Each structure stands twice: as structure tokens, then as C-alpha cells.
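User: My instructor asked us to take a sequence, write out its structure as C-alpha cells, and then describe one feature of it. I'm not sure where to start. Here is the sequence I was given:
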Amino acid sequence: MESGAGRPSPTSVLVTLRGRARPLASDGLATDLIHDQGVSLLRISIDLRISIDIRLLSSDISVMTEITAKKKLPAAVERFVLHWGDMGDEWGVNRSVSQIHGLLYLSETPMTADDIAETLGMARSNVSNSIRELLSWNLIRRVPIMGDRRDHYEAETDIWEVAARIAAGRKEREIDPAVDALRACVVDAADDPTISPVASKRLKEMLAFTELVDRWYAQMLTVPRPRLIALIKLGEKIVSFLPAGKSK
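Assistant: Let's start with the prediction itself. The C-alpha cells for your sequence are:
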């Protein structure tokens, strides 16, 4: 609506006063102290255009802060964090989850979620969700800091332990469900006269292979580290200790 010489009509806001009224005056702002049924009210009339300008300016500042609020990392650390994020993405893990893990792995001190968000330039909500994911994988842990009530996080830095926990997590999330599904398929196929012998045979072969991998995973997770390191170092030499098998 227009008022006066083509200017928008002011927007009025009523504010209940709990203390003594103080007069306000500025461009585009008018105040009137009124009384209604024993209650003091302050009518503030604000030019609508001023309100819009302020809102747009505030929005621009918040967007700019979200984009530029990022700490500078040493080049080697930044390269590792970015590459760790790419590797996680290739393995089906959220890129943000992997980057946060990489950052905590190289961090000398525990970090808060706010520290992580500021360092990586991520949204706080994204960091919180990623932290929960890493905690579920048992790859990071909360640590108390004297005099600070905020949650701080640090990563497991023993690389052999990290590998073991990732292997255990992938077994639980990928291999175990695959074994269960294949076993159910084989049972269903045995009772279904319409399924072809070829399909039934291939299901059994895939189940046998997946169960073999499952047993190997479980065994490797329980092998003492010194023996596991020796086994890995043997490499192809281990073949010489194995009995000769029949080739297909």
C-alpha cells in the first residue's frame, strides 16, 4: 500500500513495556508511547524498505560466512584429507565422513565438532552426522577435556587397529548380509521346481565362495598382529608351503 508521496506505508509493531520507556529516533523509524487498559505500549513504525534491506544484508553475510569460514591446512595434510575423502567415496562411504576421519587421524589434539566444521568448511549438521557414523564404526572416540564441557573427538591412530575395525565393519555390513541372502536363495531354489539347474548351481557356487571369504575374514580378524605381519610379508612365498591342488 502507498502513503504520502508515493512511499510505502510504515509497518507498525506493538511492544509491551516491562520497564521505563525510552524514546527512539532514527531515519525511517517513528515511535509513539500509548496506553491501553493500564498497559504501556510502544508503537514502533518502521519503513518497510529498511526492513527488507536489513534482511537481505543479513542473508548475504550468513552465506558468505558459510563459504569462506575455512582454516588453512598444511599442504600435505590437506592433500591427505582430500585423498582420504576420495578413497572413502570409492568404497561407498560418504566423502565428508572420510575427510573428517582423515583430519582427526592427523590431528595432534582432540577436536570439537565446531573445530572440524571450521577447519573443513563444512556445515555443522553435516559434521554431527558424520561424527555419529564414525563412532558407529568405532574409528573415533569421545575424550574429556578438563574445564571444557564440549565433546572432543580423536581418531584411533594405530593403523593396524584401524584396518581391523574397518574390516570388521565391512564384514558386518556387507559379507554377513550377503551370506544370509544367498543361503535363503539356495533354500528357495531347492523347493522351486521352476528354477533351472544352471541357476541353482550358480547360486550354490556363489554361496560357497561367499562363505569361504566370510570364514577367512573371521580368521584374519583374530590372528595376533605379529603373526599377521609375518604372514603378509611372506607374500607369494607362502604358496611353497601349501599342498599342490588340482587345477581345473
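For the description part of your assignment, you could build on this observation: The longest helix spans residues 159-190. Try explaining in your own words what that tells you about the chain.
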